[in-house]
Write a structure and sequence with these properties.
The structure holds two protein chains of two kinds. Chain A is mostly helical. Chain A has one domain. Chain A is 70% helix and 1% strand. In chain A, a hairpin with a 7-residue loop joins strand 1 and strand 2. The longest helix of chain A has 36 residues. In chain A, 52% of the residues are buried. Chain B is built from six helices and six strands, in the order ααααααββββββ. In chain B, strands 1-2-3-5-4 form a five-stranded mixed barrel.
Chain lengths: 345, 273
């Protein structure tokens, strides 16, 4: 009973510490989704694969979203013609390279600032490498979901299909000639159903941009993300608290002290618990006294890129094959870098 | 998009979902506000983040209020509430809110525990700060030995671990009793937990105290104020790592002159700066 009570206290302390950061991340990402013009952003990105991957990874700094928020954003980027390297760089790096995540990691590991530094560095290296690898494939369509690929084909037939939304009326006129499911009664014209994600709706410019309406959408977005991510946070914290209290310390210690076993264990844990990157540093903190620093880094770098929840979301963009590639590449690179850290840094 | 999102909520549920959201937001606002007001935050997180929690609770309560107002408005204009945007959802409808509500209610009704000697032994109490924690701060030499708290003593020892340097210094410290199986029967470890971020990383530090009689008079978890004098003893265990050493080793221990039992303090934990 005491054990259970202790576990509950740990659970509550994780939640209380993490909730402000979660709310901050959710509010900022909702605000930015409403106010940043992605069209302009995409137009200003370099075309060179390496530079594109670097720029894409760094845009993450503008979008303080965790992995749940960045998948829809990356999806929109791809549809608007962002080069593969930049879109994939963004997808992998954004959950880590953003101010909220950096701050929360620093709060959790104030005693070891090097963790914050290596987390950013390793995430950037991995995101840029994978971004460059996929830039070899110029046409994104074979990687994407059939529906999404079809959509891009249709868009590319529009000679003046724009990187900026301002030219979208051209597209609207020809909607009648296209197949698919449309929604009527949203703004001036029909809207395709496969564009229906919250953020797309909120961003559509045909809506009267009355401040009140934006505010309403902002609140709606904050609530929805808070509900989804809060639910994940609760499950993740419960797992962390139970592992800390109920698993005998000897087992954790023996697993956590081995160079390779600790890295593999933490990466596996990262993939399973699917905890949001804005708050995963607090989760990792509960292992700080028993696991090696390199394995904590493995957790902090791998978790935001690939976990069960993110795979679910990525299925809305990519072919399963593509997700297997991403998963394998990210896992190998994380493992190598964490191993490098444990031997040389 | 997602298998789960195909489960369409029934109209009745759809009507209730915004209500669940509002309840979840308000419940969390209330939980954070309550733990701030009642001082329970001291048991959960480092004081640096108290303000952050307070601001979050106020924001959540305002958000809940605005949401309620919007909901009532949309209920008034029946049929025109098609505003709700469908998100890519991980949980079936309503699950996320329910989890949040359940956790908040549990938090509001069950008070957090104060970690006890069991936890201290499990987490490995010793008289040194774990190496993974931040480096020892510098100390002003102005603090008189008898004014040092238990945690100040541990820090001082970490900065300069030579036992003889403290021989004869007076000490007046509070903490709770831990019976370490490795120490002889006339020794207790006077212990406190230190928090550097939240309760998850709370780590125990303890100072060995030499008693005049058997330790059974002071059961584990009793809070004590001990006045005494520092002295060196040779023990077969290393108190810095709490492991047996093959040879006897000189250790700093506190020899107790007066021992008072005190109630559990309101702020039982120490905090790393």
């Amino acid at each position: 009973m005491t054990q259970l009570h202790n576990a509950f206290t740990l659970f509550l302390s994780l939640l209380v510490e993490a909730f402000p950061f979660l709310l901050l991340g959710v509010s900022l990402s909702s605000a930015l989704l409403l106010f940043i013009d992605e069209g302009k952003l995409i137009a200003s990105l370099p075309k060179n694969p390496l530079l594109g991957a670097i720029a894409g990874s760094c845009i993450g700094f503008l979008f303080p979203v965790c992995e749940c928020g960045n998948v829809p954003v990356a999806r929109r980027f791809l549809m608007q013609g962002l080069p593969n390297s930049a879109a994939i760089g963004f997808l992998l790096a954004a959950p880590t390279i953003n101010p909220i995540v950096i701050w929360s990691t620093w709060v959790a590991f104030r005693g070891q600032p090097e963790i914050v530094f290596y987390r950013i560095l390793f995430s950037l290296i991995i995101a840029i490498t994978i971004g460059c690898i996929f830039s070899v494939q110029k046409d994104p369509r074979p990687m994407l979901q059939p529906l999404l690929a079809q959509r891009i084909t249709q868009l590319s037939r529009q000679p003046r299909f724009a990187r900026s939304r301002k030219q979208e009326p051209n597209l609207k006129e020809s909607m009648l000639l296209q197949s698919g499911t449309f929604l009527l009664g949203t703004g001036n014209g029909p809207m395709r159903l496969d564009e229906m994600s919250a953020a797309t709706l909120t961003l559509t410019r045909d809506q009267p941009s009355v401040m009140g309406r934006r505010l309403k959408l902002f609140i709606e977005n904050v609530t929805q993300e808070l509900r989804e991510l809060g639910g994940m946070l609760i499950l993740g914290s419960a797992i962390a608290a139970c592992l800390q209290v109920f698993v005998p310390r000897e087992i954790v210690l023996s697993l956590g002290q081995g160079t390779i076993s600790s890295i593999l264990a933490m990466m596996l844990l990262a993939a399973i618990v699917s905890i949001c990157s804005t708050v995963d540093a607090f989760f990792a903190l509960s292992f700080a006294s028993t696991f090696t620093t390199s394995s904590l880094l493995g957790f902090l770098v791998f978790g935001p890129m690939i976990d069960i929840k993110a795979i679910g979301l990525m299925l809305s963009i990519f072919q399963p094959r593509m997700i297997v590639y991403l998963f394998a590449l990210a896992a190998q690179l994380t493992f190598i870098l964490a191993l490098f850290h444990s031997y040389f840094l | 998009m997602n298998v789960l999102s195909k489960l369409k909520p029934s109209p009745k549920l759809k009507f209730l979902l915004p209500g669940l959201d509002i309840l979840a937001i308000l419940a969390w606002g209330a939980l954070l506000f309550k733990s701030w007001v009642t001082g329970q935050l001291k048991l959960l997180i480092h004081p640096n983040y108290f303000l952050l929690v307070f601001v979050t609770s106020i924001f959540l309560i305002i958000l809940g209020g605005v949401k309620t107002w919007l909901w009532i408005q949309s209920l008034r204009q029946k049929g025109n509430n098609g505003e709700t945007v469908q998100h890519i959802s991980i949980f079936p409808p309503g699950w996320g809110s329910c989890l949040l509500i359940i956790a908040a209610i549990a938090g509001l009704t069950i008070p957090p525990t104060i970690f006890d000697s069991q936890v201290a032994l499990q987490r490995g109490v010793s008289d040194s700060l774990p190496i993974t924690q931040r480096e020892t701060q510098s100390f002003s030499v102005n603090i008189k030995p008898e004014e040092r708290s238990l945690i100040d003593w541990i820090r001082t020892l970490n900065a300069y671990p030579e036992p003889d340097a403290y021989q004869g210094q007076k000490a007046n410290v509070t903490g709770f009793v831990v019976h370490s199986p490795l120490l002889p029967d006339d020794y207790i470890l006077l212990t406190r937990f230190i928090i550097s971020c939240c309760a998850v990383d709370a780590y125990p530090v303890g100072l060995p105290v030499k008693l005049e009689r058997d330790r059974s008079n002071y059961p584990p978890d009793t809070w004590l104020r001990i006045e005494g004098e520092m002295m060196t003893e040779t023990l077969a265990i290393d108190t810095q790592t709490m492991q047996e050493t093959p040879t006897q080793k000189r250790q700093l221990v506190l020899s107790a002159n007066s021992i008072t039992t005190i109630p559990t303090p309101d702020d039982p934990y120490g905090y790393s700066n």
